[in-house]
Write a structure and sequence with these properties.
Immunoglobulin-like; 7 helices; binds dinuclear copper ion; EC 7.1.1.9; 5-stranded mixed β-sheet; 3 domains; about 35% helix; about 375 residues; Helix Hairpins; electron transport; alpha+beta; translocase; Cyt_c-like_dom
Length: about 375
């Protein structure tokens, strides 16, 4: 147990800076688990010392060279046996009570908690706010970047659209398997506003390691304002003749003459006819700072958008998005050939996607360096 604790603390310290630490005590969930672990470790240490003492005492006291004859032999000792059973039973009961108590505390409190539905798919995440109906229709949702308020329980309901994935954002507490056809709800929380890392924790295919997300925790007032802006959001209508307008048209209709599939068949953009649920929600794509489910961030994410649109499966193994430069790719075990868009058309799509922005004051990345 000591080795485990030491390892946990060390990795915790190393990873704290990346926002990936089970030792983050700003989460009540993590405090509860830490408190339980301290009890378990303390009991283990006491037992370890007790057994070690008994062993060394016996070895020392009954050394052969100290005695001429073997010590007195006896069989059975009812008193000792009762103790040997009773003490472990008491310890197990004590630890069980602690566990059940923590489970009760950490159980979701659906009435007051903020609710977020988490969908895991190969190889990305969608975060939907089932209680926040967008003015333009549908629920507010965001792909690969989860917003949550600080200082209150957040009830996450996790499921998978294909294989088993694992939701793991250790700073806000807990880890849950995301399983197809199963919905699991539990609560997470943090006291501290900031950005935390989330990873898929269940080996799920070629891009398991590229299935990441960001958790952006905002102070209550700012969270409310941001979600209100998301609720009111409608994707901007591009000016006629602009690259964005061409991008919009390609997004909605694709280009049938070169077999380029429409994006709208798979993706949703709030306030437009695009309502696809096969891929992540792109409503706030221009505000997002990551690309490819956390594969790239910031400037790099911006740079990678063009290669991404041309041939996502070549830059992210196993990505199910088709190619748009006509190159071959493998999806669901079959070799496929993508449609073709010109460089101008790819640039227009990128311009349109970048225009999908929340108003400045609702940019949840605003204060993040
Ligand atoms: Cu999804 Cu690993």
């Amino acid at each position: 147990p000591l080795a485990v604790l030491a390892t946990a603390l060390l990795t915790g310290c190393q990873q704290a800076q990346q926002g990936l630490s089970i030792g983050d005590m700003s989460s009540a969930f993590n405090r509860e688990i830490a408190w339980m672990s301290i009890w378990a470790v303390a009991l283990s240490i006491i037992i370890f010392l007790g057994v070690s003492f008994a062993l060394f005492y016996t070895v020392q006291k009954f050394r052969e060279d100290k005695h001429d004859a073997p010590p007195a032999q006896f069989h059975g000792n009812n008193k000792l046996e009762v103790w040997l059973v009773a003490v472990p039973v008491v310890i197990v009961i004590f630890l069980s009570v602690l566990t059940v108590r923590s489970m009760a505390i950490l159980n979701p409190t659906p009435d007051q908690a903020t609710k977020i539905d988490v969908l895991a798919k190969q190889f990305w995440w969608n975060f939907e706010y089932p209680t926040i109906k967008a003015d333009a229709g549908g629920n507010v949702a965001n792909g690969n970047e989860m917003l949550m308020p600080t200082k209150q329980p957040v009830a996450l309901t996790v499921t998978s659209g294909d294989v088993i994935h694992g939701f793991w954002a250790p700073n806000i507490g807990g880890q849950r398997a995301a399983m197809p056809a199963v919905k699991k709800t539990w609560q997470v929380d943090t006291d501290r506003a900031g950005v935390y890392q989330g990873n898929c924790s269940q080996l799920c295919g070629a891009s398991h390691a590229n299935m990441r997300y960001k958790v952006v925790a905002l102070e209550q007032a700012r969270y409310d304002a941001t979600l209100a802006a998301m609720k009111a959001y409608r994707a901007p209508e591009p000016a006629a003749g602009s690259p964005e307008a061409l991008g919009y048209q390609l997004f909605m209709q694709g280009k049938p003459e070169t077999k380029a599939a429409s994006c709208a068949g798979c993706h949703r953009i709030q306030g437009t006819p695009a309502a696809g649920v096969v891929g992540p929600d792109l409503s706030f794509f221009g505000t997002r700072r990551t690309l490819g489910a956390g594969m790239w961030e910031g400037e790099k994410a911006r740079e990678m958008l063009i290669p991404w649109l041309k041939h996502a499966p070549h830059v992210k193994p196993g990505a199910l998005m088709p190619t748009y430069d006509g190159s071959e790719y493998r999806a669901n075990g079959k070799l496929q050939k993508g449609g073709v868009l010109t460089d101008e058309e790819i640039n227009a799509l990128a311009a349109y996607l970048r225009s999908l922005k929340l108003p400045e004051e609702a940019d949840y990345w605003r204060d993040v360096p």
